[in-house]
Write a structure and sequence with these properties.
By secondary structure, the chain is an all-beta fold. It contains no helices and 19 strands. Helices cover about 0% and strands about 50% of the residues. About 20% of the residues are buried.
Length: about 200
């Protein structure tokens, strides 16, 4: 802007001032997402005219000062991002990540080979997004309980069945397992299936 001052016809002077207008920041996160407990999802903020970012809550985020963190929430969570422009103006957006539980997040093999070679010698559940396996039981075809273990984590072979019963190796056959677990969301999971001993 320019201002001109005059004093009659004798004196004229001009002054100038620059007014800098910073654009207002904007941000959007798209639609809500659903994931299975234990898995991750990339959050992508579409941002304009922002120079800094802040996500909240920080739980389960790979970073809180970037536009695109990876989220691994343990339960359903609504994440918010605040973005700030050069003049301190801000904008915000939120996205809800629904965390669900399903049997697909637990893997139980259908065969194992308890022959002492160090490979596939134990029968145990693996996977992700499970807080605790409450009970894991193995029965023979006549319903006799051969193996029973309680309150252990997934992916731990030391809690697996070694293919023996009362100190003797079980014969090659088809056996039934039952699994009760608690998902990271607090939901119960129940699974039942068959496993074969192969020698």
């Amino acid at each position: 802007y320019k201002v001109i001052i005059k004093q009659g016809t004798c004196f004229t002077d001009s002054g100038y001032v620059n007014v800098v207008v910073f654009p207002i920041p904007t941000v959007s996160l798209g639609s809500n997402k659903t994931i299975v407990a234990g898995s991750s999802v990339q959050l992508n903020a579409t941002v304009q005219n922002a120079v800094s970012y802040l996500w909240s809550p920080p739980d389960g985020l790979s970073c809180i000062y970037c536009p695109d963190p990876i989220a691994t929430p343990l339960k359903t969570t609504t994440y918010s991002i605040h973005v700030y422009g050069m003049a301190g103006c801000d904008a915000t957006a939120s996205i809800k990540i629904d965390v669900t539980c399903e049997n697909s997040q637990v893997f139980v093999p259908n065969t194992f080979t308890p022959n002492g070679d160090g490979k596939n010698d134990r029968f145990y559940p693996s996977g992700q997004g499970i807080d605790v396996v409450k009970r894991f039981s193995v029965y023979d075809r006549w319903g006799e309980l051969l193996y029973d273990v309680h309150d252990f984590p997934l992916n731990d072979p030391s809690y697996g069945w070694d293919g023996t019963y009362k100190g003797k190796a079980a014969k090659p056959d088809v056996y039934v397992y039952i699994l009760n677990a608690i998902c990271a969301t607090g939901q119960p999971i129940f699974m039942k299936g068959d496993v074969s001993i192969v020698k």
